C-alpha cells in the first residue's frame, strides 16, 4: 500500500501535465481561433447566413410557381325544397376534379400573370315527383389572367430591396463585429503579454534581490555590515518574492479573460509570443480620413437606415391612397358527355375588370403619418453627418496619440537605459559597503519601473496602430485595405 499510493500520485501528476500542456500562441493564431470560436462572431455569422436564406427565398418567389389541386372523389346526397314548384326533391352528386395553376410575378410592374386549367368529371342524379333526372360528363376550363395594380408603388420590388438591405445590414454587422474582435483580441493579447513581461521583470528583480541578500549575508558574517542591513535585505527579498507571486496571479487572470474572449477552453495553459520591437510606421492622416469616410461600415449602415426610412415613407404614403386594380382574362370552356369531345362546342369567356379605391376622409391620419416618416428621414440624415464627424475626430485623435507615443517610446527607452546603468553602478557601491539595502532597493524599483514603462509604451503604440487600422480601414503597415477579402466578396454580391 505504501508503494501503490506514490505511484497513483505520480500517474495523476503526469496525466495533468499532459492534459494541461502549455500552448504558445501568436497574435495571428489568436485571431484565427477567435474567428472560429468566438460566441459573438458565431452569432453574427449565423444572422448573416439567415438573411442570405431569406434573400434566396424571395428571389425564388419571383420565379414561376406551379400548383396542382386534386379532388379524386367527391360525393354528396341531400334533400332540398324547391319553392318554385312547392315540392321536395332529392339530389345526388358524384365527381372528381383537378386544377393546375402556373403563376408568374412580374417584378417590373408588380403584376401577376396566371395560367389556369380546371378539369372535372360530374355525375348528377335528382328525383322529384317520381321523375328522375341524370346528367354526367366532363368539363374543362382553360384561361389566362393578368392582374395589375395602378397608381401605387411597386410592392414586389420594394420587398425585394428591403430583404437585400437586411442582408447587407447583417453583413455589415458581421464585418463590424470582426473589426471589433480584431481590436479586442489585440488588447487582450497584449494585456497577457504585458503581464508575462511583468512576471519576467519581477523575476529579474527577485534574482537581483537574491544576489543582494547573499552579498549582505557574507558582509554581516565577516563583521563588515550591521545586522540591521541583513534584516532589511531579507525584507526586500520577501517583498520581491511576493511581487513575483502577485504578478503571476495577474497573468493567470488576464489569461483566463483572453481565453474566454477567443473561445478557448479555460483549462488550456497558454502563453503568448510577440515581437514588440519599435518599428515606426508612417501614417498619412489625410489618407486615413479619406479612406475612413469612403469605407467605414458604420456609414454604410447609416445609409441603409436612411433607405429603410425612405421605404417606410413610401409605404406610409400608400395608406388610404387612391389606387386602381386592372384584371384581364381570356379563356375557353368546354363540356361534353365524352372526354374526347370536351371542346366540340367551346365557349369563349373573356373578362375585363377595373376597380378604383378612392379615399374620402381620414381625419388627417395619412398626412400625420407621412409627416412622421419625413421627420424620421431627417433624423437619419443627421445621424449620417454625425457619424462622419465622429470618424474624422477619432482618426485625428488616434493620429495625435501615435505622434505622442513615438516621443514617449524614445524617452522610455533612454530612461530604461539610464536606470540599468544607475543600478549597476549602485550595486557596485553596495558591494563596497558605500550604500544601504534601502538605497539599493530604491534603485532596483526605479529600474523595474522604467522597464515596465518601456514595455507599456511599446504595447500602446502597437494598439494605437491597430486602432488606426480599425478607424480608417486602411493598414498603413502593409499599405492595403483592411476589409477582409471574403467580406468584400459578400458586399459586392449584394450590391
Please characterize this protein's 3D structure.
Strands 2, 3, 4, 5, 7, 8 and 9 form a seven-stranded antiparallel sheet that branches. Strands 1-6 form a two-stranded parallel ribbon. It has helices at 4-19, 27-37, 39-61, 155-221, 227-262, 285-295, 297-317, 365-431, 437-472, 485-494, and strands spanning 22-25, 65-82, 87-106, 111-128, 131-150, 269-272, 323-336, 347-348, 351-357, 474-475, 480-481. It is 60% helix and 22% strand. It folds into two domains: 22-54 and 159-310 and 372-494, Outer membrane efflux proteins (OEP), CATH 1.20.1600.10; 65-106 and 111-152 and 322-358, no CATH class. Mean pLDDT is 83; it is low at 1-20 and 489-495. It has 495 residues and is α+β, with helices and mostly antiparallel strands. It has ten helices and eleven strands. The protein is elongated and about 145 Å long.
